[in-house]
Amino acid sequence: MPLFKRKPKPAPEADDRPFWKRKAMREMTPQEWESLCDGCGRCCLNKLIEEETDKLYYTSVGCRLLDGESCRCKDYKNRAAKVHDCVTLTSRNINRLNWLPPTCGYKLVAAGKDLYWWHPLVSGDPDTVHAAGISVRGKMSATEETVPDDKLDEHIVSWPMKWPKGSRG
After folding, report:
1. How far apart are CA 26 and CA 40, in angstroms?
2. Do the beta carbons of residue 45 and residue 58 sit within 8 Å?
3. Which of 43, 50, 72, 123 holds its CA 20 to 30 A away from the CA of 134?
4. What is the pLDDT along the chain (169 residues), one digit of tens a residue?
5. 81: which strand partners?
6. Which one, of 18, 16, 15, lies nearest residue 109 by Cα?
7. What are the backbone angles phi and psi of residue 121, rounded to the nearest 5°?
8. 3-state DSSP call for residue 43?
C-alpha cells in the first residue's frame, strides 16, 4: 500500500478562444485556413512595382476572375491554372508577401493580431466586410480583360493599402 495517495490530474480546461487565437497557422485545418479570408478582394487587384525603387502600387483593376459584386474568385478551385501569377497563400509565405493589404485576415493573424469586427468569423455575417467599406465592391474600375498592361498606371489608387474610416471600430 502506497504511503501517499496521488491526486488525480485536473481535467484540462476547455480553451474557448477562437481557432485563430489558439492555433498556429500551420496547424489550421484547410477549412479554418480558408475562413481567414474576409472576402474583400483587395489582394486580387492588379499591382505594379516600380523597377527602380521596388515601390508597390495598387490599381483599381481586378483580376479577370474577380467578381466585383461578391468580391470572390469566379473559379477559385482552378484559379492557379487559369491565372499564371495567382499566388496561393500558405503559412510559409504569408510573412513574405508585402502586397497584402493591412486589413487582410491572414496578415493580421500572422502578426498575432485579432480579426476586426467586420470579419465574417467575428461578425457571423459575410456582408459586414462590404458594409465596413473594406471590400472592393463598387471600387473596381475594370478588370484586366479590358485594361491593357500599358494602361494600368492610369488606374493607380491608394485606398487598398488604407483602413476605411470607422473600420477599426
Report:
1. 23
2. yes
3. 50
4. 556 666 666 656 678 899 999 999 999 999 999 999 999 999 999 999 999 999 999 999 999 999 999 999 999 999 999 999 999 999 999 999 999 999 999 999 999 999 999 999 999 999 999 999 999 999 999 999 999 999 999 999 999 998 877 666 6
5. none
6. 18
7. -70, -25
8. helix
- CA gap 60, 85 in Å, rounded: 17
Please identify which residue in the block is written with the cell numbers 484540462.
12
Between CA 10 and CA 156 the distance in angstroms is 59
Q: DSSP H helical segments within 51-156, as ranges?
A: 79-82, 105-110, 120-123, 128-131
- Mode of pairing for the β-strands spanning 56-62 and 142-143: parallel
Residue 132 is classified by DSSP as T
